[in-house]
């Protein structure tokens, strides 16, 4: 006779659960002299099954369930990577006057190449999360800029895995130094917004390990990140939120991750598979999703969720489909993060003090440092107000402060950000006549100004102003509606801006273009006749003052591109496979993303990865690579001298690229493996030193399923960009 095992099994299980939760005796979990694991073991023995199951999914849109009986706090999450964003479901219902410090976009922070600054940014954001009683920040975003028009490139750290990893580690250290959980996201291969909730990304194990995983691996191994957020998409046929390869084999077994995996919001599709694959916390709470999942916008986007809600998960456990030990493991990870970051042992005392002068200063410093001067023909910049009687300020981003891209990362600044026009007027003072012309309405704004006739009139007005001015500055680019989450953007500027720039730059040969963008922009219609181009990215609350500071030489631009600016869409590695077919996107380019692709196929970029001009010049000399031959575990030291050969102080970002000249698998022409910012006074020379370890020589061999560093010659390039290589050296890895 077939035994009725499931019911009997369930009865035993429930009985065990009740018994196990009756652990009594002194509350050892409260004893801070014990190890974290000892405290967890004790607490696990006291929590009932229902309490544990309540902890692994959200109770509300942004919070999990506390267990007041035992003093277990809720996870109180908030977005986002660029500052504390109000955490209600609908940010339109935020309390009056809510606002925090709006920091520059992630890509702008990457453009600083300044790890120390990024760490201070993370700390400044976490201070504000704590001040508001929050304990889990949903940042950083580290997804690689594979697709030049990805709607969220602005949020991430660009196209290079090494640079993205350094930025992520710095940011996470800053955030977690304040006892706030950082959440590195979105794991994995979330690199386009087109059908992001549905696409199946087909990507090789080598490309995952060499391009898409490094920032996550470094976040875990070097910054001890508390949380990883799984992405919406599938990876090689399996939803990321229920992907055993990603969530268990890679994160746990390979990377040694001890923290928790949280789902992206409404990105789950099953109960049993999701629980067994390794997701630890499903967000948002099922209750908060009720009524939403049937809304057209949710249905159209493919949002799904609520599968690990107690009413679904408990039956899966009692039926034996999900082992209780699996639930215990999830709760162990949540508690590990809470104990490790001090969240369990502290009582939140929200001060509501945000956007302090110190936090504002970090945002300002970052915004200025992130500016990238792409072109400066004839040294048109910096402007000197002694030589300017009038200046035309033009464009859809002149009178509006474009602080950030759109979506879950967009922070409401507490202060009213100063738009570029006002910042420029304040900078030049009454002696210089400042004229303003919109020139072209931002796509989607000012509908009545978006007709052909209106556009022609606006351009005509701008040209007339430019013609009679000593110089013209066009503040162009995108907005939070034309560059945002949930949609990929155009590579060309929004409608009408190319025409405007062409017309104005013909009328005034001292025309400067300032671009608000989160990534590459096509400039071929007007670049030849525009002498200077400055990329402002999205500078946060200093959207107006930061570019003006650079335009007038109050700061010497030192930003460097974290993404390749391509000449044409067809030059991108993603071009043949975007947006994919039948919801499958094939990352056929493998590891050849960004400059790796351009180098391999000899494609001339418009502006290369790592590029950025200064108001001074730098000279490199005395490159030394030692020892000339190393064993497998020996580091290589690279040193060189950098001189400020100009007349103004400035910071240079020295980039070290490594080329493996003899390898069993094809490898990129060169790869960034070290970098450093060095501030130099005019005439000053300084020696800079870098260490290359085995990681700098290794590649992922997906036949061996491991990283290998093969003996042979490695070339070392010291450059001011990936295409401006100043000095070359080499070393040999012994073993042949
Ligand atoms: C969004 C984003 C994620 C964000 C989360 C909560 O869909 O993908 O980055 O943290 O939902 O707002």
Give the SSE layout.
Elements: H1 5-20, H2 36-44, H3 49-55, E1 77-78, H4 106-112, H5 115-131, E2 136-137, H6 161-176, E3 181-187, E4 200-202, H7 205-212, H8 214-221, E5 227-230, E6 234-235, E7 238-239, H9 244-254, E8 260-263, H10 272-277, H11 286-289, H12 296-301, H13 310-318, H14 324-340, H15 357-370, E9 372-376, E10 390-394, H16 420-428, E11 433-437, H17 452-467, E12 471-477, H18 497-507, E13 511-516, E14 532-535, H19 545-551, E15 584-586, H20 595-600, E16 618-626, E17 629-630, E18 636-644, E19 650-660, E20 671-680, E21 685-692, E22 699-701, E23 706-708, E24 712-719, E25 725-733
Parallel strand pairs: 1-2, 2-3, 3-5, 4-6, 4-15, 5-8, 10-11, 10-12, 12-13, 13-14, 17-25
Antiparallel strand pairs: 6-7, 9-14, 16-18, 18-21, 19-20, 19-24, 22-23, 24-25
Helix pairs in contact: 2-14, 3-14, 4-15, 5-6, 5-15, 6-8, 16-19, 17-18
Bound molecules: alpha-D-glucopyranose.
The site of alpha-D-glucopyranose (GLC) has 7 residues, from loops.
Task: Write up what this structure looks like.
It is a single chain. By secondary structure, the protein is α/β, with parallel strands linked by helices. It folds into 3 domains: 323 residues, TIM Barrel; 236 residues, Rossmann fold (3-Layer(aba) Sandwich); 116 residues, Immunoglobulins (Immunoglobulin-like, Sandwich), CATH 2.60.40. It contains 20 helices and 25 strands. The strands form 6 sheets. The protein has a 6-stranded mixed beta sheet with strand order 9-14-13-12-10-11, sandwiched between helices. The chain has a 5-stranded parallel beta sheet with strand order 1-2-3-5-8. The longest helix has 17 residues. It starts with a helix and ends with a strand. Helix 2 packs across helix 14, helix 16 packs across helix 19 and helix 17 runs parallel beside helix 18. The protein is globular and about 80 Å long. Alpha-D-glucopyranose (GLC) binds next to loops.
